[in-house]
TrEMBL record, chains A, B:
Protein name: Flavin-nucleotide-binding protein
InterPro entries associated with the record: Pyridox_Oxase-rel, Split_barrel_FMN-bd
Superkingdom of origin organism: Eukaryota
Organism for this UniProt entry: Beauveria bassiana (strain ARSEF 2860) (White muscardine disease fungus)
Pfam families linked: Pyridox_ox_2
């Protein structure tokens, strides 16, 4: 139980630590249906960074068999009209890459302690820093699009209409983010309170303490008005059920996590 | 059905539009357990923006009775050690404020079309741009902390141990973000496909199309090991059930949304 954090390891770290931290970080990104991608102000006229919700997945085009514990790139995709793909820095920079911060967060529970100030969330969160550049190689682009499509529902790429048309490939941009650093932060376990509250009998008798588990549900698939396939294919229905069960189990088990 | 967007209205816009856009934008922020707050690179040595998951709520200290359709501030809180509260620009800037981008995103469904490239998510997303500054007035700080605590479970502030201790107020920082602009984007409805795929009999017979609704569940509250209140209070149990029901209803109803 408690707060955990892991740093994206530098070359110097030993092998065991490296694999574990990378695996945790990469797994969380890959199990997040959405990531938030932030870029620095795109022009001197606006002081604000810009954040875009996108689909992202860790992968390796040069070594597709790489595991989640290996160094990987982050792939992102969006429509070419998206702010990220038309950012001035993406065309004027000499390196043709944009510094980005990518964030993936899972909310796992509402932690309600005696004091509002000791209340918290159970959560898992990853932040990655890296340089995003457009993927121009067509084979790499198709690799990334399959990776991203299959992250929504595994097997969907091969099940959908293939191959991509020329217009589809041209209107969809893919970015590869070379990761420079990152970290993993999490909180699990039950509530925690200060001694002065724990010893306050009136407060202990009056204030309920505990955790409300929170998780994401993938519900029953609803066929489109023009669908002609009678039964929902197993790869979709089973994936939805399995993800829902895994998410629910994580949220409940997180509450029982013991102090380390 | 389809894609919707709303801009945070400028003074010039008429009253009706203003209220509607603000209400949509503010409601989405307030129904998000987490927002992602991005700031520009905090020093010249790092090129990367930084994104932090935080609890945020729209409110008005000067006019607590303001409705969601009125102009409001965004309140954020975190531990004073947090990067956001120790950002160099928060102390060196003459205005003592940090430009931030705040993002809140709800995933509502996996939209699986005949072509992977017409596949999408049903979602609702808000981005706000504004200037964040620490709240120094103690009454405003307590107002904001109650607002934020009650956003987790309505009524929790008054139900928990009160009043806050001096140490608690000192170790918790609150930021007020003055909103400069923002926007709301959403996608709802069923799948959509291009004519060449709709007319392809082989593809239509083979590829299932439809939407997997996605929503967040607040599960059964789990009492802590030191809880002494026998029954889960109604304000917690009912809130969890009601939120779960509302979330599920939204995700399913979003699929049925008609084209506008």
């Amino acid at each position: 139980m408690g707060r955990h954090s892991l740093e994206y390891p530098k070359e110097a770290l030993n092998k065991v630590k490296r694999v574990y931290a990378l695996e945790q970080i990469h797994s969380l990104v890959n199990s997040s249906p959405l990531v938030h991608v932030s870029l620095s102000p795109s022009s001197s006229s606006s002081p604000f960074p810009v954040t875009l919700p996108m689909i992202g997945q860790m992968g390796s085009f040069s070594r597709p068999s790489a595991s989640l514990g290996d160094p990987l790139d982050l792939y992102l995709h969006g429509h070419i009209s998206s702010r990220l793909f038309t950012s001035p820095s993406s065309t004027t920079s000499t390196t043709n890459s944009i510094p980005v911060c990518v964030s993936a967060t899972h909310l796992d529970g509402l932690v309600l302690s005696l004091s509002a100030f000791n209340s918290s969330y159970n959560y898992r969160s990853v932040v990655l820093f890296g340089h995003a550049a457009p993927v121009t190689d067509e084979l790499e682009k198709v690799y990334a699009l399959k990776l991203l499509t299959d992250s929504v529902v595994p097997g969907r790429w091969d099940a959908a209409r293939l191959p991509p048309t020329r217009a589809e490939l041209q209107s969809t941009a893919v970015l590869r983010v070379k990761i420079a650093s990152g970290s993993f932060k999490a909180r699990d376990g039950e509530t925690g309170d200060d001694r002065h509250d724990m010893e306050n009998e009136e407060v202990r008798r009056r204030v309920w303490t505990g955790v409300v588990p929170v998780h994401q549900v993938f519900g029953s698939p609803v066929a489109s008005s023009y669908n002609r396939v009678e039964e929902t294919p197993a790869y979709i229905a089973e994936y939805a059920q399995e993800q829902t069960r895994e998410n629910a189990e994580y949220a409940v088990n997180a509450i029982k996590a013991q102090k380390k």
